[in-house]
Fold each of these.
Amino acid sequence: MNHFTYQNGELCCEDVRIKDIAAQVGTPFYLYSSATLRRHFTAFESGFAGMAHQTCFAVKACSNIAILNLFAKLGGGADIVSGGELFRALKAGVEPQRIIYSGVGKSRRELAEALQAGILMFNVESPQELDRLNEVAAELKTRARIAFRINPDVDPKTHAYISTGLAKNKFGIPVTEALQEYLRAKTMAHIEIVGVSCHIGSQLTQIEPFIEALRKVKAFIAKLNQEGIQIKYVDMGGGIGIPYDDEQPPHPIDYAAAVRAELAGMDCTLILEPGRVLVGNAGILVTEVQYTKRNSGSEKRFIVVDAAMNDLARPSLYGAFHEILPVRETAAAEKQQADVVGPICESGDFLAKDRLMPEVQAGELLAVMSSGAYGFSMSSTYNSRPRVAEVLVSGSSFEVIRQRECYDDLVRGEAVSGLC
Ligand code: LLP
């Protein structure tokens, strides 16, 4: 359920007409509904009510500090994967004790920054990272709270690029080797073992792989207990899918019920790292049609818009489907196949391929739906296209939460070299 609906033939975000925002902000821009963000967060949370848990929003999905702040005000924490994400989370007012740090390549500097901030827990992904963290914590005369991210070797049945819990993926420590690492960590003066974590992939449309992974985690915790290692936190990662097209992902409430049932009787705080499910359908990308064309010798129709693969990488990168709606509602007119493409000089630059689209004219606005997750946060300035604006709506008001970049932003930090 989201708050992007047609009212009197005009696509609105809550009570604001998208065309009015476009007139003021220009195109393209990302647009988020705060009512949808709040609704998704509270729906997700409600499944875990009464159970010790902490929801840590996966910052990578949508990193704008206004959005992080919105979730922080609702009690959310942050799942971070870089020093930059730590900086954002702190700036947005996320409490350090609600921040967890995942990722296979944490640098010394990043570890030190997170230790100094006093985050809740590091999800350690390799023996070498454990050694480095112990060293850095010693230098800072502190102790690092850790979980190991275990790789449960479960097939999440999702796109290969976003599957992370298979033995062949780079993530985590094989469950077979994890015990010896916990035993090693137990002997380290600057390490405090507090948890076990796992994250098996993204855009999962079934509950079973989560439960299979959780069972492996539970069995592993039993082994740890036998070794006298007590676990306070079980981190289930993120991964619940959303409907982009006709997918039928589990409802967060059903997911929560299955997780609760599995964890019954365990004296642990559950940590969750949802990203997409909170923001995916709370954001859209608004773009303006520039040209329409047909190339001779081909029946192919192209709708050239002002947004491109640098603004929304998912279609080019994963062949991902995003529904595209006209901002001005069209009568149920005849639709024809078209590619919706951007101005970038690559054939891979498309937002939709062979899509049934109504007749559209230059100057019309289109809404690329379900773009709130991994949309702006994966955007780049490829082809020297300044990054677009981000706008947040609340009721009948809207606010620019990130200015459109300008040409000067493109060359910031660059210099004409004196060497040549
Ligand atoms: N926790 C960890 C350790 C993760 O690696 C991820 C996502 C999440 C949580 C959040 O997963 P979510 O709930 O959003 O599925 N760019 C891709 C998705 C990459 C996901 C990376 N990790 C896409 O656009 O589909």
Note: The chain has two domains: 4-31+280-411, 34-278.
Amino acid sequence: MITLALSKGRIFEETMPLLAAAGIEVTEDPEKSRKLILDTTRPDVRVVLVRASDVPTYVQYGGADLGVTGLDVLLENGNQGMYQPLDLRIAACRLSVAVRNDYDYASAVKQGSRLRVATKYVGLSRDFFASKGVHVDLIKLYGSMELAPLTGLADAIVDLVSTGNTLKANHLVEVERIMDISARLVVNQAALKLKREPIRRIIDAFASAIPSV
Ligand code: AMP
């Protein structure tokens, strides 16, 4: 049995064409079912649905042989013990700094002010602001980062931006682009040795179906 860990939403939807290229179709709709283990048209392949930030843990400890997860998750939570063969170029977005549209970020940075920054990405944010020599107090949040500057909780946020619509709807503007993010295929190292042939076939099929830039 080969087990692939995916999170619901964008990663699940954008992984489906890659699976199809490997001759695999998921036979249940995760949005309509409460099942956490989904069958596929291949009796030896199943999909497990986990939280995006749990995908690396499943793959690392062998709860799944393969997984698809964002580079943001891998960099923030660690990618030890996993083989990372492919940038799938799906779920593309960027990690950015955003502030209220009436906040003068450039002046605050120039004056050496200490910024309060709310984010889920405490590690990546610490590294980024340290590399710029900007002093920050980081506030860890688990969701709806956009609310923090609007309520006075923080001066800035570090979050994923795709279309920019969420920022715009909340009167926020992007002031720094930290890095481009996309989803990666990760593979359990022991599984790659023990189930080499079927896993290699999936990796090769995914590689051939990666969307071009
Ligand atoms: P957008 O309005 O298209 O810029 O999307 C921004 C919202 O979607 C923010 O709440 C982000 O945290 C989330 N988001 C954007 N892209 C991704 C992604 N690739 N993976 C997970 N969340 C994302």
Note: Residues 196-209 form the longest helix (14 residues).
